[in-house]
Design a protein that fits this description.
single chain; alpha+beta; 4-stranded antiparallel β-sheet; 3 helices
């Protein structure tokens, strides 16, 4: 009885994680003609990232007007270009991050004499969420339970890597704080020495002036 209960609890936990993975992380927003919008995503090194964007036609069932096409660029934190689309209505990208940091996806719309509003649907996934589970779960390849276990394993691995990544970031911040405090202490000491030197020079100058005027 206890074994069956434990198995049921494990299945519920795994299925709950599966539901989490099936949550869509898509955005839909409006962009005025002649303007741009950038979206950033913090991605750690060696993490997989996939994205898909589509311009929603203002007239459903009709071709997209030429005025609603956009220019798209995806850059790394150091400015390396991972994707570029010029005057497009849709597209997708996939890459493995070579460096950790904030990656940006920017959308531009050309300026028109008659202003238009472009609606963009954008889906950007990273890490475990970027994995194409539909290919993993091909018919006859794995059972449902095995697929959920694969998802759970990848989740644990991702959390483990994320914890080490956060620890590294924390150490970097602590090192930066120590370096900043050391520089501030040095600057304060130098400022104090300069102030005392200026005060000494002023005192010497006044003493010399009064002695010259025979007031002392």
């Amino acid at each position: 009885m206890s074994g069956s209960l434990l198995l049921t609890i494990n299945l519920l936990a795994i299925l709950s994680l599966g539901v989490i993975f099936n949550v869509a992380h898509s955005l839909r927003y409006d962009l005025q003609s002649g303007t741009s919008k950038c979206i950033s995503e913090e991605i750690k090194s060696n993490a997989m990232s996939v994205g898909k964007y589509t311009v929603i036609s203002p007239n459903e069932g009709f071709p997209l007007p030429d005025s609603h096409r956009v220019t798209v660029r995806v850059n790394s934190p150091h400015g390396n270009n991972y994707h570029f689309g010029d005057h497009v209505e849709s597209g997708n990208f996939a890459f493995t991050a070579a460096e950790s940091g904030d990656y940006t996806a920017c959308f531009w719309t050309p300026d028109h004499k008659v202003p238009v509003t472009v609606t963009i649907e954008f889906d950007w996934r990273t890490g475990v969420a970027a994995k194409d589970w539909s290919n993993v779960a091909k018919k006859g390849q794995v059972e449902t339970m095995e697929l959920e276990l694969k998802k759970l394993y990848d989740t644990v691995t991702s959390i483990h890597d994320e914890m080490f990544y956060l620890r590294e970031r924390e150490e970097e911040m602590q090192q930066l704080n120590r370096s900043t405090n050391s520089k501030m202490a040095t600057l304060s000491f130098v400022s104090l020495v300069i102030c005392l030197s200026v005060a000494g020079l002023q005192f010497w100058h006044l003493k010399t002036f009064f002695e010259r005027k025979k007031l002392l």
